[in-house]
Design goal:
About 45% of the residues lie in helices and about 15% in strands. With about 350 residues, the chain is an alpha/beta fold. The protein has a single domain (about 45-335), classed as Nucleotidyltransferase, domain 5 (2-Layer Sandwich), CATH 3.30.420.10.
């Protein structure tokens, strides 16, 4: 996708506080949109690719603290991770709220940026958020933090929150190249996963699928981009992501799938792109759990606004139990030296 502004990205987005009509009142357009909503009911099973693996190198930490450090992350990190011209920056975030996700839906989702657009997005996002930086979607929606304390969003009226979220959605649609996602039922993964490091958890499975989807999209577009992957630092899953990245260096077949160039772990409070990925992962997790699985609410208008302007810009998979069985069988067949993956690090 051309990262320049398009008529679709300029279009006004619907109110984010409202939802689509109940099932009995939906329009034919809404029914078609939900039926076609960007490939999320497709099953995983991407063919292998043949590409060369080039530079591998990681940047693990940003320097400094506060807003200056956040600006460094947003402006300098794309240059460090993707030296020279070209390449793509992929930012992935997980969402699983055990207090709400009774069905066990687990989701990893994020955005892909051209390096220049990543820098412009960071500049625009920090300006948009202002006193509401850093933006955390769960705090924005509930206006409470994880300890049930009021957050900086508590003083906003519904109209003010609606306006802020609509502007955030418009900015994401304008600056990103692609959205990727993968989701599964965490109970299925616990039951079916082989004892292979890097593939034991729903997080690592979904990250692997997202990276494969991005690599396949690059190939289908006839592009030669290498990818720098960015993950949130300090979260529950960092060690799993670190191992998966090390594995992509050690095993050329995985590095080829991912188009791996480099990676970094960045705190959410220092990265505009990670905050945007958090927004998307939260919205998508809600949709998959409460709309697709439970059928107890319509799609949020904010998610519709993120996807409807250009559904083809989204690559996603919902991984069924049957697909997980095949996925794990394929992984075991592709990685013959299983013992090295069974050893604890």
């Amino acid at each position: 996708m051309n990262s320049k502004e398009t008529p679709e990205s300029k279009a006004a987005t619907p109110s984010t506080e409202s939802t689509l009509s109940p099932t009995s009142q939906r329009t034919p357009e809404e029914d078609r949109f939900l039926a076609d909503f960007p490939r999320y009911l497709e099953r995983c099973g991407e063919p292998p690719m043949t590409v060369k693996r080039e530079r591998n190198y990681a940047v693990d930490k940003a320097e400094g603290d506060g807003q200056n450090s956040a600006e460094w992350v947003g402006q300098r990190l794309p240059e460090i991770l993707l030296p020279g011209r070209g390449g793509l920056l992929a930012v992935l975030e997980a969402y699983f709220d055990e207090s709400e996700r009774t069905g066990g839906v687990f989701c990893v989702a994020g955005y892909v940026f051209a390096p220049l657009q990543a820098k412009r997005f960071d500049r625009d996002w920090r300006k948009l958020m202002g006193p509401y930086w850093p933006f955390r979607m769960a705090e924005f929606v509930h206006r409470k933090d994880k300890h049930n304390r009021p957050t900086k969003f508590e003083s906003l009226t519904i109209d003010e929150r609606d306006a802020l979220l609509r502007k955030a959605v418009e900015l994401i649609n304008h600056r990103t190249t692609l959205a990727v996602s993968a989701s599964c039922n965490i109970k299925d993964v616990h039951r079916l996963s082989p004892n292979l490091r890097g593939f034991r958890s729903a997080y690592s499975v979904c990250c692997h699928i997202c990276m494969m989807l991005l690599g396949k999209w690059i190939e289908d577009q006839g592009r030669s981009d290498r990818v720098a992957y960015v993950f949130e630092a300090g979260n529950t899953f960092q060690k799993e992501a670190e191992f998966l990245m090390r594995l992509s260096k050690q095993r050329p077949e995985l590095g080829a799938f991912y188009r791996y160039e480099s990676h970094a772990f960045v705190p959410k409070e220092k990265s505009s792109a990670v905050q945007a990925a958090d927004l998307y992962a939260w919205e998508l997790g809600k949709f998959l759990d409460e709309t697709v699985d439970q059928g107890r609410r319509a799609m949020r208008q904010s998610l519709r606004a993120l996807t409807f302007p250009n559904p083809k810009r989204h690559q996603g998979r919902v991984i069924s139990e049957k697909a997980l069985r095949k996925y794990f069988a394929d992984i075991k067949a592709a990685i013959r030296d299983e013992q090295s993956l069974r050893d604890d690090a």
